[in-house]
Sequence to fold (1962 residues):
Amino acid sequence: MPISHIGVCYYPEHWEPQEWPHHARLMRDAGIELVRIGEFAWSRIEPAPGEFHWQWLDDALASLANAGLSVIMCTPTACPPAWLIQRSPDTLPVDHHGAPRQFGSRRHYRFACAAYRDEALRISDAFAQRYASHPAIVGWQLDNEYGCHATTRSYSDDDLKAFRAWLEHKHGSPATLNERWGTVFWSQEYVGFDEVQLPNQTVTEANPSHWWDFYRFASDQVVAFNAAQATLLRQRCDSEVWLTHNFMGNFTDFDHFTVGADLDVATWDSYPLGFLDQGWFSDEEKLTYRRIGHPDWAAFHHDLYRAVGRGRFGVMEQQPGPVNWAESNALPLPSAPRFWAMEAIAHGAELVSFFRFQQYPQAQEQMHAALRLSNGDPAPAWSQILTLRAHIDQLPAQKIDRAPVALVFDYPSCWSSEIQPHCPGAWQLEWAFHFYSCVRALGLDVDIVHPGSELTGYRLVIVPGTICLPPELVGELAASGATAVFGPRSASRDSDGRLPKNLAPGAVQTLLPLRVEAVDSMRSGAQRQIEAARFRGTVTRWYEQISTHLDARLSDDQNGGFWYQNGAYHYLNGYPDQALLVSILNQICDQAGLDVHKLDEGLRLRRLGGLLFVFNSSPRNRRFHPHQGRCLIGSEELSQGEYAVWLQHERNCD
Amino acid sequence: MPISHIGVCYYPEHWEPQEWPHHARLMRDAGIELVRIGEFAWSRIEPAPGEFHWQWLDDALASLANAGLSVIMCTPTACPPAWLIQRSPDTLPVDHHGAPRQFGSRRHYRFACAAYRDEALRISDAFAQRYASHPAIVGWQLDNEYGCHATTRSYSDDDLKAFRAWLEHKHGSPATLNERWGTVFWSQEYVGFDEVQLPNQTVTEANPSHWWDFYRFASDQVVAFNAAQATLLRQRCDSEVWLTHNFMGNFTDFDHFTVGADLDVATWDSYPLGFLDQGWFSDEEKLTYRRIGHPDWAAFHHDLYRAVGRGRFGVMEQQPGPVNWAESNALPLPSAPRFWAMEAIAHGAELVSFFRFQQYPQAQEQMHAALRLSNGDPAPAWSQILTLRAHIDQLPAQKIDRAPVALVFDYPSCWSSEIQPHCPGAWQLEWAFHFYSCVRALGLDVDIVHPGSELTGYRLVIVPGTICLPPELVGELAASGATAVFGPRSASRDSDGRLPKNLAPGAVQTLLPLRVEAVDSMRSGAQRQIEAARFRGTVTRWYEQISTHLDARLSDDQNGGFWYQNGAYHYLNGYPDQALLVSILNQICDQAGLDVHKLDEGLRLRRLGGLLFVFNSSPRNRRFHPHQGRCLIGSEELSQGEYAVWLQHERNCD
Amino acid sequence: MPISHIGVCYYPEHWEPQEWPHHARLMRDAGIELVRIGEFAWSRIEPAPGEFHWQWLDDALASLANAGLSVIMCTPTACPPAWLIQRSPDTLPVDHHGAPRQFGSRRHYRFACAAYRDEALRISDAFAQRYASHPAIVGWQLDNEYGCHATTRSYSDDDLKAFRAWLEHKHGSPATLNERWGTVFWSQEYVGFDEVQLPNQTVTEANPSHWWDFYRFASDQVVAFNAAQATLLRQRCDSEVWLTHNFMGNFTDFDHFTVGADLDVATWDSYPLGFLDQGWFSDEEKLTYRRIGHPDWAAFHHDLYRAVGRGRFGVMEQQPGPVNWAESNALPLPSAPRFWAMEAIAHGAELVSFFRFQQYPQAQEQMHAALRLSNGDPAPAWSQILTLRAHIDQLPAQKIDRAPVALVFDYPSCWSSEIQPHCPGAWQLEWAFHFYSCVRALGLDVDIVHPGSELTGYRLVIVPGTICLPPELVGELAASGATAVFGPRSASRDSDGRLPKNLAPGAVQTLLPLRVEAVDSMRSGAQRQIEAARFRGTVTRWYEQISTHLDARLSDDQNGGFWYQNGAYHYLNGYPDQALLVSILNQICDQAGLDVHKLDEGLRLRRLGGLLFVFNSSPRNRRFHPHQGRCLIGSEELSQGEYAVWLQHERNCD
Fold:
């Protein structure tokens, strides 16, 4: 296992200096090792332009260092101070109705604002000069939660100007853009780039290729913003100091793989209950898992961010109690904070940092729980941290193995599904999650991979309907020898957004000789029923009528064929419900020689080196005893919110 | 029967010139006779101001003509090119929040923009000069889908200025306007027309007469825009060339009767599945008819547009497969395209033109199915066209008869119901459809008529709650000798929007001595139950408490009387559900001596001259054998999406 | 009983002068005593700037006075005329998107506009000079329905300027504001007040203390606007002439207690059916009470406005038939108008004024019923007024007693619950109503009190989760000797919006030694089940985990304790459903020695001096016979919409 550290997010500026040493001791005594600070501190560091007040942060750092704690320092660029906005109101982002979004909360900047990019580098450099060589600082977080509150895309005149320049750079000439977007449709041809508008206020929907390029442009602005800070920090810092960004859950507005390429470690915000409440889950799931979260939600993100961080990831903000920002904010089960932390560790996290040390009694997050109550007393989560520390200390270090299953995830395909959903519930993130959840219900570990990944060693590759699939991936897949399952919509667009010349599923046709002739997009409640011996369930949302000489393995109640196979390659030409997809994947995994455990609802397994972790999210007690191994933590019977760890073999121990 | 042609919408500008002859031969070989082209071709014809490129369109026309196809040419004014908007940004419409709606899709013009009206005439005249005497061109379509994407009403300063002038022209003096609108209410009196604002951004709802005049004003702008093109085209074209516009389904934003008066033929867009998905139908109906459409939806529009075209109508765009623009986009049953086409023919359509020839793999409608797939292969609908052609060729030509039943439809009454719904589900179009659907469930044919129509010869006239009923219609009705049924809200406003001086139902009181004392507007789920021997069901949405010496024929569970009769005249003082309304209309039709067939759900009949058409939209197989006649197509048993045609007598054959 | 007058709202400007005497005689003959006029008459009185037309109003007043009617005159400032807006467009309010809200309906002014405040005083003074000493005028209504249509808060540059000045006046320095709002959070510190923006367009939610101050500021603008008119009118009028304002139902946008302090009498708009339709009630309640209203809705407001008027209140607008402004507008039961009037009288109303005399056939409210139809004939409500008059005349005058139960209500706490709901269904008004409804279901009378009230004499004080509870109230409560019940969220914020230093429930901890450690906010459908012998039901919406040495009296199915008691003090740490709350309050009332009648659903009691009123809102017939007394009106069996009045003793008769 990579070294897993317990961390905490801390805001010394919220508390009196005389409390800092006490806070630091409390952290240390609880087994906390890492402290993130500084990401919202700009107004305290530079209360007026050019007037720097470093002493307090020096002192706070010293308090932490004196207690033996390591520190993750942040650049404070997510929150420019009021004076900066007064001087440069063009910093503010503009919403899709064309209205500026004002100062008074956070993330009030647009990425395309050159003046702000300069200011962000100026303050980051000031931080770097001051603290780059501070011995307690082991890593830096650049900015915080890029894109949160829909700030990736902004619709100002600045953005328009930058977008036009980006288009010119990409396409070269209006004629090329016209050809790639198909602007002859609806008489939309451009003579000059200065005729192109932002796609947000058209009479009816804008050209999907127009939107797709705008999404790409906006993503590129984030990449550039991050890269500039990363370059600067690398110049100032020693090489062992790592750089990260704090990404988010359920968030796809920019390409995380590209941003991640400029970082050393990917970290993210894990709020399982907030996202359960406002996610796509059914009402039944939202009630069943109300106080522990969906069994796959955090796991999916761990596996995703492990990919974004090219193997290195952590949780920078771990929910410790009720949050404040969902429509309803459930009280987690008492054990939930350590359950979530142990789950992160099982997926290979190097860090689980709780958000935050002490609840601040004022401002937007005054109802966001912490490890300590607002009056300084321990919050319900505090005692769980002590248990967590003890549990971690019982675990031998392990190396993380490649999982047997790879699941492809692609951000531009997500954008395509947002721009042209074509059916309710079309979001590619949800589709990827659905395939992930069903294969995890078979007890398997999964690596999430981006479409350019090397695939050798995987036994099963899942392409959960990835819309824009590079032809190279198909070649890589064929070379890998893996079994593969393609979901509906796979390879249904080329990189310009066109339907493939050979129709969908584009290059996948080299593996499976079939093509999509028509799509049946289904409203909520509509379904195609399948009733075969081992395969029962429904296809909802999306069904494709296929032309092929292959026989369909199943057929539905509307004479539609479903599930086409060509040797090791499978094409699912519709969106199966959970029961049906689990049964199909079960058979495919059997054929691929994978060792499958069909798990009771809410139960999940995860292997890390020689360790086997068992997690129960179900309200029912669940029992799981592996074929081999010795129980280190917990037992074979687990109530909701409990876990067990079994040592199965010594392989991979460091 | 009028000559029914199969047509297709075609965009030569989407394809390579060398493909045009091949496309034309495919069309001809499939039995297609008419091709619509040009409505989105402005940017290809005039890529820069005054620079015309006609050659490609000349060539495309020649390809079609060489294959023996006739052509409907369009003026391209629905989509002004980018350069025009750059030069005249005031062309853009403004939404009801006051924000301009940008270039990047279609219909990006406001009708009240004088500069754009000039540009539209200039390009239309250029088309007319080039092609007016082209021998292949049999008709012209002016613009396309007036008002689509909520573009009838625009809220710019231009619109305000034009509205004030319109008001001054209509009312003469502010004093008259004050009196007609009742502006003394809430101290709203105007001293000058320059004090009147657009009604879109008032603190709470604007005066309904203010809105009603604004709706009328906006409708008049469309009428004028269309009339100017019609005048110009008539000057350039031979007299046998007909003019049309491509109207839409479920659309009432302008007065189609008035626009239609300047045309020769009315054509419309028939997308039964898209409109099922986004229409007012119940969830159950949306699932039952998911792949074939509601049994009355297209029929209602055929009968409506036959009225708009004063007897001459067609379908300019017929759905051939899944559309792209609804929230969910169902795959039609295989037979659906010819089912819909045959239904149009049964209602007297001269043309059924499929949209479109080949799916374009790019831009906004890349997911809109066509007769050919985007790669050029036949789409599922293609083989249906061949069958359709064969079926049409089996039908003897017929003359269309006046139907026994007339149903009144009025656009300003629709606007009134939108401006002041007063209960959920108040839209007059939906009410008219409900009465239409219930009388069609009795096997009857219906003519839809506007309130100024001549009514001689009808046995039954249905006034489905027409809010603003001209007193002349009441006189015409009395003179006609027809039985009449008035729905709730009938004649409840005068032409200024006032409650009638003698209360509702205004002039109807000359036929039925009763008046409305109070209205019970009912929330969803609320109902008044009726349990009489032959009449069972509920009144929902709207119920009127009546003062009269007439006895109510029924009474509800809240001591409310329902259904008043005075000889041949019936007043339904509430909105009955389908079961109740069918049973009431059944008895009224019996009394009127109409020959009623109470049909199984989903089954419909339609007569055309001596032919009887039978259509089954129900998922259950249905059986219908007429008392007389010989089956030409199909049989007495019909599965979902199938039709039969019976020859009953030779009368009316041409 | 205070003298209860029947009144009516009348608009002489809507009718021909020759009709006024006839109208006045009809009113007098029906037993109407008071007539409200003038609140929308500005454009008729001053059709052009400075040009006054008084004669018509003089004449209308004379017609009323000649019939022996008394008059409530209004200042017409709710509706400035068109010419004023043309001259001062800055009068218009600005919505939270920053768009001006235009002329064309009513309440088109922003309170912070100094120029409009001057105009409002100018026209009010003109009215006062003309009519202050008119002998028929017994009271004045200032403006009408402050804040209706979301006009309390406006977001113009004017508002921003005034808000900054207000902040400077309140906080003195930016440093103080920073400390009180906690702006160090998210780097939001202000150096000058000119950096503070309005809170409406921030990137994500603004600081809750920022919003709370903005709500306070907006409320203060209303207070100042009203106070200026009150001061002016008091200078002009005799001392026996009273001043009032016409407040609204379900409306909390400004602090009514503060506005009320500048008035003599509080009056309000009672529209039980409109508010049932658009209120928070369940679908089942909306259907059960569709034609009579929820049994507690009007009663709650009567008791609230009796507090706002410091004992003196009335209904200025009483629904007489269907309204026009809800989504569905039910027809009241025939008896409903007098049922509602008698209920107001039972709660101590001095006036029940029906809205309005005659239905106006034009403009926004043409579908709003009145006592007379638009053609002048009697509407269904007319005969009910005659019965009501007869009933009132049978009642001996009574003095109103202090109720045994006080329920605390606080406007700033409402705002806090709107700004930070934290769970669905969090509105403090709804919570107060829920506690009110449950204690009224036990047959008890309730006084609503503001948090600064003197509490001596109450047996039970209910604090229904009042978020911002002044510590003084806790002291007052302890001194009063009353039993007290505190709901969840009680005292959970200090006056700046901070969490209390000793955690929630702040000062309540002096009575009950417990504190809130965590909140479980529950989505719709989530619940904690309680199954004890006498106490069964669920906790929904909100549950607090408590730290205390007290034993919980109940426990839920998730091991959560519920209901803590310390002697006479009770803390309910969650939101109980109706069944559970009624059973808990029943036991607490028993312990407090209150005489409880657990009433059948829909039945309510109310005492006024020696009179006992019984009201049945249930669709089932209900029976109630008091232990003592003589029936004056009605009987012991009551159908829906009927009432009985019993004389229990002669005490308190005047």
Summary: The radius of gyration of chain A is 25 Å. The first strand of chain A starts at residue 5 and ends at 9. Residues 208-236 of chain A form the longest helix (29 residues).
